[in-house]
Amino acid sequence: MKKYQKFLIGAACVAAVAVATGSFMKVNAASDQVTVAGQPVDLTYAAEKALPAVVHIKYVQNSKTQTVRMQRDPFEDFFSDPFGFFGPSERDRQDGTRERQIQTPKRTATGSGVIISADGYIVTNNHVVEGADELTVTLNDNREFSARIVGTDKNTDLALIKIDGKNLPAISIANSDDIKVGEWVLAVGNPLGLNNTVTAGIVSAKARSLGANGVESFIQTDAAINAGNSGGALVNTKGELVGINAMLYSQTGSYSGYGFAIPTTIMNKVVADIKEYGTVQRALLGIRGGDVLNYINAQKEEGKEVDLGTNEGVYVDDVESEGAAADAGLEKGDVIISIDGKKVSKMAELQEIMANKRPGDKISLTYLHNKKKETKNVVLKNAQGNTKVVKQADMDVLGADVRPVTNQQKEQLSINYGLEVIKVNSGKLKEAGIAKGFIIQKVNDEDMKTVEDLQQAVKEASTSKEPVLIIRGIYPTGKKAYYIVELQ
Q1: Over residues 92-99, mean pLDDT
Q2: How far, in Å, CA of 189 to CA of 51, rounded?
Q3: Distance of CA 93 to the CA centre of its chain
Q4: Per residue in 275-313, pLDDT tens?
Q5: Sign of CA dihedral 185, 211, 149, 192
Q6: What is the pLDDT of residue 311?
Q7: Whose CB among 36, 99, 207, 267 lies 3.0–4.6 Å from 348's, allowing a Cys bridge?
Q8: C-alpha pair distances (Å), 346 with each of 4, 65, 67, 320
C-alpha cells in the first residue's frame, strides 16, 4: 500500500455525531434500493457479492547476484594476505578499486486484486506487481494460480494480470461517476496479512488529487485501508466495483482516517487499452496548470489581487506549442471550466475526463479568456504530437543481440558495466551506424547493466514525447561514442 504522508499543523478537530433510529434495510439486487434518510444500511449483501472476486496476490522477487565496485583498502589486503602469497584478487582493478559480487535478498510482499472477468483477468495496482519474478494469486476459496502480467500503467498506478481459469467469480463493475459523497462503501482486500477482510465507511470526497501519480482523480473514503489493501476493491452497497484501493493517508504508515481509490472510469479505459494496444493510449490537451483557487491563493500570498471571473476551474499556466490546446487558441491565463458540457472545477476532474479519451478524439472545450466565455472544438493528440495509436516497442526493433560485458572486458576498458553488441541485423542500431563489438553503457542517461535494462529503456522511450534513444558507450579500442536512435 502506498502511503501518502502529510503533516497538519494547528488543525481544529470538530466531532459531529448523528444518532439515527429505525430498522436496518436489506439491499437486494433483485429490487430497487430504497433510501430513507437517517437509517443505516445493511452491508452484508455487498460483502457477500464482493468477497469471492477479491484475491490475495503474493509478490516474489528472487535473489540476484550484483557486482559492486568499491575502493580497495590496502590495510585489508595486508592483513588478509600479509606476505602476498596469493597475489591480487581477480576482482582487483588497475585503478585501485575492487569489484565484489553481492547477493541481494529474496523479497516477498502481498497485495490484493479484483477479478473482472470469468476467464481470469485481474486488476491490481502497478506497485503491487512491479519488478516481480513470480506472482501467485489465491482466490477466496483458497485455490492458487500463477499469474502473468499483461500490462501496467505507472501514470495511474494500475496493472492488469491474468490467471488461467474458467468460470471465475468476476465482480460487477459500476460507473464511479454515479457514486455520491456520503454514500456507503466497503473496502475489500487483504490488509496486514489478514485475508478476506471487509471494512466499511463512506465516500468522503471525489476527484481528490495528491500529487502521487501522473494521472489521478481519487475517490476518498474513511473505510479503513491498510498495507495489503492495495489493488483491492472499493464497492457500493450493491457489491459493485466503484474503485481500486491504491493508497492511504497517514502520518504513521498505518490507517489514520482516509484511504484513496482509483475510480472505475479510469480503470476501464486503462484495461481496455492494455488489452487492445498493449499500452495505454493517453490523450493530451497540451497545457500545464492547476486549480484556479490554488492559483488565486498563491497570488494573494504575494500581495497580488487576481480576478479571473471565477473561483473554480483549471488555470492555464502554460500552453505547449503545437499541442491540442495551442491549436485551439488557448493562452496562458485562460481558465478551463467545462469539457463536453461537463463542469470542470479542478485539475483532478480534468484529468479524469482526459483519462477516458484517446488521441484523435474531439472534445468541446469551454474556457474563460479575459473573463469572457469561449467554446472551441479540440482534437486531442498523443505525447508525440500526433493522433496516431502509440505502440510500445520491443527490443526486437533494434535488430541486434546483446550480452553483459565480461569481467575481462571491464578490466581492459576500466568500466563497471555495459552491454556488448554481439550481432547486428537489420534494425534501428544498424540504421544508426552501431557496429558489432560496441558496448552500450547508457541509454537516455540510464545505466545499462542487464538486457532487461535495455528492454525497459526501449519500451519507455517508444511511448514518450520524444521516441528516441540516446546511446552512449565504448568500442573495444577504447574509443567512446554516442548515437541517436529514432524509434518512430
Answers
A1: 58
A2: 8
A3: 41
A4: 999 899 999 999 999 999 999 999 999 999 999 999 999
A5: negative
A6: 94
A7: 207
A8: 20, 48, 48, 20
Q: Which of 56, 127, 176, 273 is catalytic?
A: 127
Q: Name the CA dihedral angle for 215, 220, 226, 232, rounded to a multiple of 10 degrees.
A: -70
| CB distance 436 to 422 below 8 Å | yes
Pair 127, 158: CB distance under 8 Å: no
Give the DSSP H/E element, type plus range, for residue 247: strand 241-249
CA 465 to CA 233: how far, in whole Å?
Answer: 33
Report the residue count for the chain.
488
Q: Angle at CA 323, nearest 5°, toward 351 and 126?
A: 40
- Active-site pick, 176, 204, 230, 345: 230
Neighbours of 85 (CB within 10 A): 6
Predicted confidence band at 432 (pLDDT cuts at 50, 70, 90)?
A: very high
User: 112 in helix, strand or coil?
Assistant: strand
Counting runs of H as helices and runs of E as strands, what totals does the chain give?
A: 10, 29
323-326-330-334 Cα dihedral, nearest 10 degrees: 50
Active site residue 95: no
Cell, residue 77 = 589486503
d(CA 311, CA 294): 9
Return the CA Rg of the chain: 27
112 tagged catalytic: no
Q: What is the DSSP letter of 391?
A: -
Q: Which residue, 356, 219, 401, 384, is CA-closest to 286?
A: 384
Asked whether the predicted pLDDT for residue 34 surpasses 50, the reply is no
Q: Are 335 and 315 in contact (CB under 8 A)?
A: yes
DSSP assignment of 195-233 equals -SEEEEEEEEEEEE--SSSSS--EEEE-S---TT-TT-E
Give yes or no for a contact between 227 and 179, defined as CB atoms under 8 angstroms apart: no
Alpha carbons 143 and 284: distance in angstroms, whole number? 42
Q: Supply the pLDDT for residue 448.
A: 94
Give the CA angle between residues 220, 222, 224 to the nearest 5°: 115
pLDDT in tens, 199-233: 999 999 999 888 778 888 999 999 988 888 999 99
Let me know if 54 is exposed, middle or buried by CB neighbors in 10 A (0-12, 13-18, 19+).
buried
Q: Is 157 a catalytic residue?
A: yes
Strands 241-249 and 2-4, sheet pairing: parallel
Least confident span in 20-29, 131-140, 256-265, 476-485: 20-29
